[in-house]
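For consistency, the fold was encoded as tokens, as this record shows:
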Amino acid sequence: MAVIFGTMHIVKKAGLEDPEYMPLIRGVYGVATALMIALVFYLKSTITAKNDTTALEYDDPAPGSQGGRVVTTNVKHDISEIGKLQKSTLLTVGIVIFMHFKFGYIQPLILQTLLPMLNMYKSPLFQIHILGRPATDDLKRPWTPANPFAGFGGGSNANATSEGNDDAQASASSGNDSASDAESTSGKKEKKENEKSEKKGKKGKKETRKDK
């Protein structure tokens, strides 16, 4: 959460919402998104190559499940998680692009340049298969779906899918903030124009009285 509000504050303070920065922000977002997608596919290929067939058995932690027993292997579990990550990544990209080109929001582009990489670094998939950390303690399978607000703070046990959904929520929130800022600005302009019109009206009345 601190990262989101901090980024939004910097964006406003530095004036990055100015249209002149639009090409640069789009370019950086495009590069960051391409790197994120490439990293997801690299993770998938790494998991497949390791082919860790160690047996894995646990009670289904998914919300709404009947608590059934799941019997699988580490490789199948991780492939399933990377599949969820792929879907959440593409969903977030779709939402951000739609919000940007439909409503002209810039903040979601900036946020989604930073958040996905940050969440990926903290995810168990990255920690185990890229950094080589052992799957123990917080990284022990299965990975419990995180509280939606936990992804903002950055608990290491948050799974990649929950963090991807947090990214989408953060983008929508920042988009709404942009809209509020735009409405506030337009409201101030309208108020100033009304004040000018009133002043002109008063001047016109005074001149009419003088002519009489």
